[in-house]
Amino acid sequence: MLVEDLIIHFSKSVLLDGVLRVLVACEESQAVTKELRKLGHEAFSCDLLPESGGHPEWHIQDDVTELLKLKWDMIIAFPPCTYLTVTGNRWFNVQKYGEKAIQRHKDREFAIKFFKMFADANCDYIAIENPVGIMSSEWRKPNQIINPYQFGDPFEKKTCLWLKGLPKLEATNIVEPPKRTEFASGKSMPTWYADAWKLPKEERAKLRSKTFDGIAKNIAVQFTCFIKSGLSLLDWDELHISEKNRIFTQ
Ligand SMILES: C[S@@+](CC[C@H](N)C(=O)[O-])C[C@H]1O[C@@H](n2cnc3c(N)ncnc32)[C@H](O)[C@@H]1O
Fold first, then answer.
1. Which atom of ligand 1 is nearest to the CA of 28?
2. Ligand 1 centroid from CA 30, angstroms
3. 150-193 pLDDT, tens per residue?
4. Which of 34, 46, 47 to mutate to test ligand 1, by most ligand atoms within 8 A of the CB atom?
5. Dihedral-angle region of residue 66 (phi above 0 means left; psi in -120 to 50 means alpha; beta otherwise)
6. Domain ranges, ordered by start, for the chain
7. CATH number of the domain at 3-248, out of 3.30.1340, 3.30.70, 3.40.50, 1.10.3470?
8. Which residue from 35, 38, 119, 151 lies 20 to 30 Å from 90 (Cα-Cα)?
9. Residue 209 Cα to ligand 1 middle (Å)
């Protein structure tokens, strides 16, 4: 779908009661988009890449910047983390890597601005996802750090969420993550992450940045249930977990 078509669609269509209009920014997998659609919400994914989720009719293959000017009930964003992680910090050493490092600093500046564009969007409910990285010091600490193994997928991947107007996600199905791969250096890495080294660079990055199914489902269910509940964040936090689970499964 083109941005222009989406604008026309928005101007002509009226949403049914309880249906939310959600932008899932920087999502080619459509993992969260599809979960939101299953719940009946009007979700659209947007990415520079074509979608790999099988629903081009819900995908805008374009720069997301223009879409942020539209009125959304909720925005879920997965901005690129290549220049925001701490693991690559040594590549920013200008004395050692010269022009390449200078370019990396510029790319990092751009990545920070891009990330903050979502935080500044005119929307009451925003969630921004990224691995542990420099945004914690450049901007603010994330509201929570989650792992796929808290949501039924036996994998480890520390995932930060910066939230506006939304509650922290509740772990719904904690499973055991497999043993990490250990290296001769003494360092270790989640095995699924280490195994991705076998893939070509582009595929590796795509695989590592995909949202796990359990997290995707819980982002969709928990955030939309909270919004539909009409409760304040304080009142929501005071609900017993059994009551929240009852709401999630309704
Ligand atoms: C870290 S990946 C997130 C992938 C996501 N978790 C998924 O499951 O599809 C970041 C994504 O941002 C996309 N991207 C980068 N710049 C963008 C832009 N200006 N507008 C829209 N998407 C962009 C990239 O193509 C990439 O797919």
1. 9
2. 11
3. 999 999 999 999 999 999 999 999 999 888 888 888 888 888 88
4. 47
5. alpha
6. 3-248
7. 3.40.50
8. 119
9. 9
